[in-house]
């Protein structure tokens, strides 16, 4: 049944070639990071850095994992920071998606006074960069007594205009026949949402989950401001603390090793989300 | 759908688990009713570890207080956090603020409590004269009181590659002492191709503007380099500064001088062997020793011999500790602050700090302690920076400066000099523009604090 | 844009919107209003001496010739980043969509750059392109090219454009792929049977059906280029050399956090916000018409 031209051998070869070029370019910085994580610091400093992995790899990763397990005076143990990042990322991802999908649904499938106003109010959050409003947001969070709390870490980040916009775009493409069919079946809007819309949105949700998870995973500025208790540090804050300020020494090989290790959970999420990118879903659901 | 439900379930479970973990982690603190003292700092890596450990050492040494030392980002982010916290009525007890931010702290009347007063109110003896003179001048008032406590102090020195010197036919035991000697050495290094570049510098504004003018006892701004108030004006567009910038421009084509970037990026050029000489902060020593693969020499900053009285003392960099003024601070907390600061300035802590981090001993007593312990004989070259601060001649303008918005003014210096190095303007134009734009910043600052 | 067939409920939509609106109002609108209020004030860093100055800050910003240089620089930068991030992403997504095997592995590999925190991404690019220690910089110099982003403004601009686009390619790739995957296979097969070649299929079926996604990515990409590139610029060039890589958002940061000119920085943010709102409105007004929703 699959004899479309793109499935021919030259078509496949071309596709593979394009992807490999893409990977070579996008992965180059990561390869460099990997090489740096296997060298000693003097080797990195003596320009140019060699392009082949060195022999310090085991030593460096061992230091990061085993010694990092004990933590220090400046940072808690590596596993705790990874755990904090995981929770933050999950809560933020699930929170943002849940909140946005029902908003997008409301804006698209209903007509009510203030509809577009609400949409623009949500959308306008994209228009002011976080660096600008960070001081007043800090004051609000302090006034609400949320400093140094998990709620303070996650709640302010839950409103997502990007997710709402994307889902709104997608919802607008759903055929009217679907809605009519549901109404004829006597299904209300919530039923329609849960049984019909949600399954159809699977690929968008998977993509959004990846993006939002990474967003939550990489939070740096906000946790730094809000949290004084080291034990709530995220892994990105931990990496920042490894990088020496001013003229202080930096163990670049350890920084690179930690960075690569910190990439594993998000990479895992991307891998796991793949099975939701399934072709032909729309066809079979009809 | 199964996925979403599963995720939700897992999330709730994890959230519950996290709250348990966090509560447990904080439990030991809640067990004893100690008064908490928050100190925010901008150090990471080895330095941050040590300062955090000092906090824990202090906590172990007494029962009344619990000091929490936390990293809140690099100095600009940390400062923003402190400002936000202050506006919300809840600033940290102690904050580490870098040298350039001092003017902003001081001119905002009411935001801070001078450190001398903190000690006085707590009834703990405190003698500002024990701190080295350049630091006292930088962070102090005319009547001898200290506004903030110097803690991590550095100054600028000249590092040079002895092996490159030998290759160029220069004597590695006689580093350049004056700028003409420096220029000649750089040219010779390039002619003999002993290195790809003669010299480079880090921290362009700090070294070429601030340190340079202190070394020659030249005024940077009116009202005693800004200490007289926010109405000061910059006065750097003079023949000496023009000569220095022009020298840098002229030495570029042969790579006798090669620009390496604004902060400490240029250090990489020296460490990798590309450049034979480096003007750098004394704090950069550890990186050079660890990663460099050549014999290292240290010397004081060069000077122009035709300036009367030169060489004078260099000035300091680094950071100091400030005490915030908050309406709800109790007498108890103020005493804890004083006790912790007293702990930090003790000889024991100061010497361990200087030995480990490469920052300089900020007090005369700790310097003498290190001398007596033989530290400087065992580590030749480590005494060059501190001597450049306390043994060289003191002058009216070696006591540092105090301007608001100085971080931005340094940026303006970078921008204008870089433009000159790019060949888009002359040294004179660069300094004129710098003065003009810098003064505009000072006037805006003056308006904002009045 | 509104669907033709909708549900008639009165209060349900408000209930659905409530969570997002509440969080938005408390944690975004309210602080933003305060931030915008600062644009009309002149104050010291600690808020101890605050004065209302009407439009003085705006006048100072708009009469500064450097502001206009920054504006032009930002437009050039944003256009370059958006284009550089969208075109390769689309190509890669088309290729990945056509694959029969190993799609998961390739997709994961292409997505990883997105997972790197911006500050670390900046550091990685420094590792590659820094004239002193970078491997790529060394290669360029060996090849005879004079690569010096510390002093050459164009080199520096090229560097930040590449570093910013690099992260965004992964983002665009992901959404393009998701969009491509939702295109019914039956449509493409029918067209193939009718004799339409790949380019024709792309032009008449794929691209139009992909247009909602493309529109979304264009809007988000513009916002990203204007705002979120701050982290990368900060890590790689800090706005230098001279002011050659200082974009509008970077200037907001330096004026606000470094110079502590809170009023001027807030005024610039207001102007920046108006600009982006304007650009986005234009996109919605003119481009959305061409978007195929069904």
UniProtKB/TrEMBL annotation, chain A:
Under the heading InterPro entries, the entry gives: MetI-like, MetI-like_sf
Gene Ontology cellular component?
A: plasma membrane
**Domain ABC transmembrane type-1: start-end pairs:** 82-273
Keyword annotations for this protein, in alphabetical order, are: Cell inner membrane, Cell membrane, Membrane, Sugar transport, Transmembrane, Transmembrane helix, Transport
User: Which Pfam families does this chain map to?
Assistant: BPD_transp_1
Provide the primary localization.
membrane
Q: Membrane spanning segments where? A: 12-34, 86-110, 117-138, 150-171, 252-273
What does the entry give for GO biological process?
A: transmembrane transport
Q: Where in the cell is it found?
A: Cell inner membrane; Cell membrane
What is the protein's membrane topology class?
A: Multi-pass membrane protein
Name the domain of life.
Bacteria
Instruction: Check the record and name the NCBIfam families matching this protein.
Output: PRK10973.1
* Subunit details: The complex is composed of two ATP-binding proteins (UgpC), two transmembrane proteins (UgpA and UgpE) and a solute-binding protein (UgpB).
Family according to the record: Belongs to the binding-protein-dependent transport system permease family.
PANTHER family the UniProt entry points to? ABC TRANSPORTER PERMEASE PROTEIN MG189-RELATED-RELATED (PTHR43744), SN-GLYCEROL-3-PHOSPHATE TRANSPORT SYSTEM PERMEASE PROTEIN UGPE (PTHR43744:SF8)
Q: Provide the function of this protein.
A: Part of the ABC transporter complex UgpBAEC involved in sn-glycerol-3-phosphate (G3P) import. Probably responsible for the translocation of the substrate across the membrane.
- Protein name per the record: sn-glycerol-3-phosphate transport system permease protein UgpE
Q: What is the lineage of its organism?
A: Bacteria, Pseudomonadati, Pseudomonadota, Betaproteobacteria, Burkholderiales
């Amino acid at each position: 049944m699959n004899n479309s031209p793109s499935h021919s051998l030259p078509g496949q070869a071309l596709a593979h070639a394009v992807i490999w070029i893409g990977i070579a370019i996008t992965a180059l910085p990561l390869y460099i990071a990997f090489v740096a994580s296997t060298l000693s610091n003097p080797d990195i400093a003596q320009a140019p850095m060699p392009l082949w992995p060195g022999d310090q790899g085991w030593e460096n990763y061992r230091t990061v994992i085993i010694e990092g397990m004990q933590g220090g005076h400046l940072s808690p143990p590596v596993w705790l920071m990874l755990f904090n990042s995981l929770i933050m990322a999950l809560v933020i991802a699930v929170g943002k998606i849940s909140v946005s999908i029902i908003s997008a649904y409301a804006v698209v499938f209903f007509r009510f006074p203030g509809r577009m106003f609400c949409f623009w109010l949500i959308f306008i959050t994209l228009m002011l960069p976080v660096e600008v409003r960070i001081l007043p947001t800090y004051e609000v969070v302090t006034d609400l007594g949320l400093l140094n709390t998990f709620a303070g870490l996650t709640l302010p980040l839950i409103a997502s205009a990007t997710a709402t916009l994307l889902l709104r775009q997608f919802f607008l493409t759903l055929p009217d026949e679907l809605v009519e069919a549901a109404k004829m079946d006597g299904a209300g809007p919530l039923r329609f949402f849960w049984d019909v819309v949600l399954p159809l949105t699977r690929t968008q949700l998977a993509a959004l989950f990846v993006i939002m998870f990474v967003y939550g995973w990489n939070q740096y500025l906000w946790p730094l401001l809000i949290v004084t208790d080291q034990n709530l540090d995220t892994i990105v804050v931990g990496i920042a603390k490894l990088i020496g300020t001013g003229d202080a020494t930096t163990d670049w090989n350890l920084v690179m090793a930690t960075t690569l290790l910190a990439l594993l959970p998000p990479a895992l999420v991307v891998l796991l989300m793949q099975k939701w990118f399934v072709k032909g879903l729309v066809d079979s659901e009809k | 759908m199964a996925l979403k439900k599963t995720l939700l379930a897992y999330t709730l479970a994890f959230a519950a688990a996290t709250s348990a973990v966090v509560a447990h982690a904080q439990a030991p603190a809640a067990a004893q009713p100690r008064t908490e003292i928050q100190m925010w700092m901008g150090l990471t890596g080895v330095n941050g570890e040590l300062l955090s450990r000092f906090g824990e050492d202090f906590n172990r040494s007494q029962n009344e207080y619990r000091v929490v030392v936390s990293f809140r980002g690099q100095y600009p982010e940390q400062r923003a956090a402190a400002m936000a916290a202050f506006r919300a009525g809840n600033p940290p007890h102690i904050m580490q603020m870098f040298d350039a931010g001092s003017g902003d702290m001081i001119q905002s009347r009411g935001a801070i409590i001078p450190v001398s007063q903190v000690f006085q109110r707590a009834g703990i003896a405190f003698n500002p004269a024990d701190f080295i003179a350049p630091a006292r001048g930088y962070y102090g008032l005319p009547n001898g009181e200290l506004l903030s406590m110097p803690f991590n102090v550095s100054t600028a020195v000249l590092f040079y590659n002895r092996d490159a010197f030998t290759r160029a036919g220069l004597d590695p035991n006689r580093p350049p002492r004056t700028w003409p000697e420096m220029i000649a050495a750089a040219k010779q290094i390039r002619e003999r191709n002993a290195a790809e570049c003669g010299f480079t510098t880090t921290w362009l504004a700090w070294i070429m503007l601030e340190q340079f003018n202190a070394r020659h006892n030249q005024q940077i701004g009116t009202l005693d380099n800004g200490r007289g108030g926010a109405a000061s004006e910059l006065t750097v567009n003079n023949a000496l500064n023009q000569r220095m910038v022009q020298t840098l421009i002229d030495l570029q084509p042969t790579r006798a001088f090669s620009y390496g970037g604004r902060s400490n990026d240029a250090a990489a050029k020296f460490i990798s062997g590309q450049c034979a000489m480096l003007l750098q902060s004394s704090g950069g020593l550890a990186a050079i020793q660890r990663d460099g693969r050549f014999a290292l020499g240290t010397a004081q900053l060069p000077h122009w011999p035709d300036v009367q009285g030169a060489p004078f003392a260099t000035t300091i960099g680094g950071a100091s500790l400030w005490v915030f003024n908050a309406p709800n601070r109790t007498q108890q907390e103020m005493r804890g602050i004083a006790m912790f600061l007293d702990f930090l300035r003790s000889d024991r802590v100061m010497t361990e700090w200087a030995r480990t981090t490469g920052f300089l001993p900020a007090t005369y007593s700790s310097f003498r302690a290190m001398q007596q312990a033989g530290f400087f004989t065992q580590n030749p070259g480590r005494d060059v920076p501190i001597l450049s601060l306390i043994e060289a001649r003191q002058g009216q303008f070696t006591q540092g400066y105090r301007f608001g918005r100085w971080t931005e003014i340094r940026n303006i210096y970078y921008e204008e000099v870089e433009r000159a190095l790019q060949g888009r303007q002359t040294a004179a134009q660069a300094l004129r523009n710098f003065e003009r734009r810098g003064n505009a910043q000072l006037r805006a600052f003056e308006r904002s604090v009045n | 844009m509104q669907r033709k067939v909708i549900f008639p409920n009165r209060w349900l939509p408000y209930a659905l919107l409530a969570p997002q609106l509440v969080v938005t109002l408390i944690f975004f609108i309210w602080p933003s209003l305060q931030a915008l209020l600062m644009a009309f004030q002149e104050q010291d860093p600690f808020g101890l001496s605050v004065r209302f100055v009407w439009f003085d800050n705006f006048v100072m910003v708009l009469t500064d010739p450097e502001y206009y240089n920054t504006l032009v620089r930002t437009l050039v930068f944003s256009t370059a980043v958006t284009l550089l991030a969208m075109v390769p992403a689309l190509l890669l997504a088309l290729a990945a969509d056509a694959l029969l095997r190993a799609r998961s592995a390739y997709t994961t590999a292409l997505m990883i750059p997105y997972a790197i925190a911006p500050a670390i991404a900046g550091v990685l690019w420094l590792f590659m392109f820094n004239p002193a220690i970078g491997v790529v910089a060394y290669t360029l110099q060996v090849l005879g090219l004079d690569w010096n982003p510390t002093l050459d403004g164009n080199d520096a601009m090229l560097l930040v454009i590449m570093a910013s686009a690099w992260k965004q390619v992964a983002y665009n790739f992901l959404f393009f792929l998701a969009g491509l995957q939702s295109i019914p296979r039956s449509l493409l097969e029918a067209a193939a049977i009718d004799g339409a070649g790949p380019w024709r299929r792309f032009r008449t079926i794929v691209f139009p059906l992909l247009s909602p996604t493309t529109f979304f990515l264009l809007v988000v990409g513009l916002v990203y280029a204007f705002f979120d590139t701050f982290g990368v610029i900060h890590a790689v060039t800090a706005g230098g050399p001279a002011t050659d890589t200082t974009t509008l958002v970077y200037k907001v940061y330096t004026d606000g956090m470094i110079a502590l000119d809170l009023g001027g920085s807030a005024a610039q943010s207001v102007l920046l916000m108006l600009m982006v709102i304007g650009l986005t409105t234009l996109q919605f007004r003119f481009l959305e018409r061409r978007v195929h929703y069904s």
